[in-house]
Amino acid sequence: MVVLQVMLILLQIPLADLHTHVVKCPIREPLPTPQRYYKRGNFMIGASMSQVILFLDDEYSFHEYPISDSGSPIIVTKNYQHVLALVFAVNEINGNPKLLPNVSLGFHILESYFSAKRNYYTAIELLCTFGHFVPNFECEIHSNLIAVIGGLGAEASCHLAALLDIYKLPQFSYGDFAPTLNDQASSLIIYRMVPDEAHQYNGIVLLLLHFRWTWIGLVTMDDGNGDVFLKNLLPVFLQRAICPAFIGRVSTIHSFTDYFSVQNSWQETYSTIMGSKASVVVVHGETQAIMCLRGLLYQGESSDKASYSKVWIMAAQMDISAVNTHKGWTIQSFHGALAFTVHSQEVPRFQTFLQNLRPHDAQGDGFIQPFWEQAFGCSLANDEGSCTGEERLESLPGPFFEMSMTGHSYSIYNAVHAIANTLHAMRASTSWVKLHRGRLEHQTLRPWQLHPFLRSMMFNNSAGETVFLNKNGEFSVGFDITNLVTFPNTSFVRIKVGKMDPWARPGKEFEVDEDAITWPTYFNQVMPLSLCNDHCCPGYQKKKKEGEPFCCYDCVPCPEGKISDQPDVDSCSPCHQDQYPNTKQDKCTSKAVTFLSYTEPLGISSVAFAFFFALITVGVLGTFVKHHNTPIVKANNRNLSYMLLVSILLCFLCTLLFVGQPEKMMCLLRQMAFGVVFSVAVSCVLAKTVIVVLAFMATKPGGRIRKWVGKRLTNSIIVVCSLIQVGLCSVWLTTSPPFPDADMRSHMKEVVLECNEGSVAMFYCVLGYMGFLALVSFTVAFLARNLPGSFNEAKFITFSMLVFCSVWLSFVPTYLSTKGKYMVAVEIFSILASSAGLLGCIFFPKCYIIILRPEVNKKEMVIRR
Asked: Helix 794-817 to helix 760-783 angle, to the nearest 10 degrees?
């Protein structure tokens, strides 16, 4: 609105008089310039396009076209296809009697010289009748401007929309990707034929992640668009673990004086790009950006081949092949580059239209002469080295002109057809027909009346694609991912290797065909790596380097017990409990299931010793039974001896419960049987000791102590002491009984099946109670060791209890220090050793006398002794 006020002041038009006046305007031809293409029609389509690059002074007026004083301008010959796409689309529509019968489309295409500010003038001239430059007035012969296509770039689109929006003219932008315009959608009426740049950011990130490129160079222009690009992309990079190796800012030039001032900064940028070990460089900008980058690479190509060691990823704003402003330059540096390009399709008959194009047939085309002379290196004037006019466009190298329709041209083609289909829909609507003097006539169409139809517009173009605009006014099409393959003769081909379509169904938004990609020759057709350092192999994990970005790291082996089966893991992970790491620590191996079985040497030896000692115990018991009437058997209370021998026999046999695969019943019986049987055995020993002591104390006939000597006392001691242990075992079974378990932690490579004791406290209570009985027996026996030997068993009981206590005192630390099946083996050994100690210390001397010294085993000898 500020711009409008300034213009009204300059033109001396009061703001209050801002309305359309129909006057007879004085005819004044527009400023002379070859850079325009005009064709009259019932409805006119305006266009702002850029083909000529001029280095202008910072201040210039609109009194004459700047090209008149600019010397030899730079012609971006590829952009001439944009003009031809619009002309072809208009001709195609005018030749279709079904689309707009009895109505013709015209166009007025103006050159904007790649200058965003120039679009202010372009907008005013489009709004005026051709040849009548009177802003804000509608002449008797008016322009019938119905829509405008342009401009190339976000800033150019904004400048153009600032004036077109006043008149509510539909504007179709074919090169504006900037996401900032979404916030202005309510005020600026722009229909965008290309997707929002935010979708491109996502596509770039997905492409980098697909190839696992995390160390990336960024090159953008040193302007506002570059700032927006970095502001939006860098946070996404950090979220997806991608690091910028460097950020190069290329200064733009607007005048010849700028060229000399930016030489040093260009050289620094080139050194930064080529000095980095990042193999992938993302480049963002518009046409001038790619031309500046091409200039940078050309400076270093003669002495440095580093430019061939980069994979260039180009944003869709950049026409990657629009770089041959100098015929001596090649585009070999961009061989293998990947580019996001606006989606395009081959339009039928378009190449034929290009092949038939001749400069002398293009009436009113002010773009063709500079294009033709620049592209073919000749002159259309009648002098030496003149063009014949019969040169063919298909003979031009790709960097100068492409015969295939580019993405920008396809957008312009669709924009023209969108306008035509909208006009067709409006004319077919009954609301635009009125009764005048008994006849139905169409009302006069105004540009702002197209907007309701455009928002719901949908049609099929001649390429077979459905074209429609979404709710944000965007053409709902994604990006093509193209691979640039160059040849020594400066020609090239674009190969579509993927796509980025944010509107596709889930899972199909991003696709890329790796096998179809041609990589730069430096990499010898092997997918390049772009990392701060080499990948960490499986079996290793990342370790951050101090002072470096997170993409730079060292690789260290996984800690013991952990693995990494993928490269570049942040931290190693432990294996499942039933698995263990292999030697390389890159995968998990299933643990072997083990337990103390009957088939392994340790189990076989345990069973063998158990049966061996059991047979000895049976032999001793048989000997005692056979010689039950001998004095030595009678002197030591043969009933207690029988009971003790049976208890010892059961102790040996209970070790069999500890061998074999643990089961529920086995686990319940194992410790209970051991605890109760051993308590009975130790109780028998205690009863023997007490009887020996009482026997020597009851020397007086009829004394009180003599009454205690007998079966009643021994049975009481055995029953009471045993019942206490039975009570402890009952509490254990009731509260937290033992159960089968698998020990997966004790051994790295084995899963040990075992019996979990349930309550460890109860286990040690049972064991402690046995130790208490043994300690009491040892104490009593030790005190009675000096009584007369013929009747005294106390010495043997003392030794047996000493062995018993020694075994079980050493059992506790040994048991706690072992793992798995070896814990079971320690307990078996302790049971066998303590039982053998009781058997040997108490009964071996008696058996020796019974078997080898029978002459001593007589009443007379016992009494004598």
From this structure: 150
Peptide bond into 478 cis (omega under 30): no
Helix (H) or strand (E) holding 494: strand 492-500
* Residue 660 Rama label (left phi>0; alpha psi -120 to 50; beta): left
The answer to whether domain 198-346+477-523 has CATH 3.40.50.2300 is yes
Q: Alpha-carbon torsion 276, 281, 284, 286, what sign?
A: positive
Question: What is the per-residue burial (b if ≥16 Cβ within 10 Å, else e) of 329-360?
Answer: bbbbbbbbbbbbbbbbbebeebeeebeebebe
> One-letter amino acid identity for 175?
G
Q: For residue 741, give both structure tokens.
A: 């378990």
What pTM value is reported for the model? 0.65
Return the C-alpha torsion angle 444, 449, 453, 454, nearest 10: 120
User: Rounded distance, CA 152 to CA 142, Å?
Assistant: 27
- Helix runs in 790-838, H state only: 794-817, 821-838
CATH of domain 601-864: 1.20.1070.10
The contacts of residue 119 (CB under 8 Å, 6+ apart) are 48, 112, 150, 151, 156, 159, 160
> Measured between alpha carbons, how far is 169 from 450 in angstroms, rounded to an integer?
9
Phi-psi region of 664 (alpha: psi -120 to 50; beta: other; left: phi over 0): alpha
Nearest alpha carbon to residue 610 among 805, 809, 831, 822: 831
Task: Tell me how many degrees the CA angle 413-415-419 measures, rounded to the nearest 5.
Answer: 120
- Separation CA 810–CA 540 (nearest Å): 44
pLDDT in tens, 63-81: 555 544 445 577 888 889 9
- The mean pLDDT of 644-657, rounded to a whole number, is 91
Task: Return the domain boundaries, the chain.
Answer: 23-196+400-468, 198-346+477-523, 540-589, 601-864
What is the H or E stretch that residue 354 is in? Answer: helix 350-355
Query: Which two three-digit tokens encode residue 217?
Result: 């160079």
Per the CB < 8 A criterion, the answer to whether 743 and 819 are in contact is: yes
- Mind listing the pLDDT tens digit for each residue in 658-717? 898 888 898 888 888 888 998 898 888 888 877 777 766 655 555 555 555 556 777 888
Alpha-carbon dihedral 841, 845, 851, 852, rounded to 10 degrees: 130
Share of the chain above pLDDT 90, in %: 19
Q: Please state, in angstroms and rounded to a whole number, the distance separating the CA atoms of residues 153 and 674.
A: 91
Q: Six-digit token pair at 489?
A: 């003769």
750 forms beta bridges with 592
CATH superfamily of 23-196+400-468: Response regulator (3.40.50.2300)
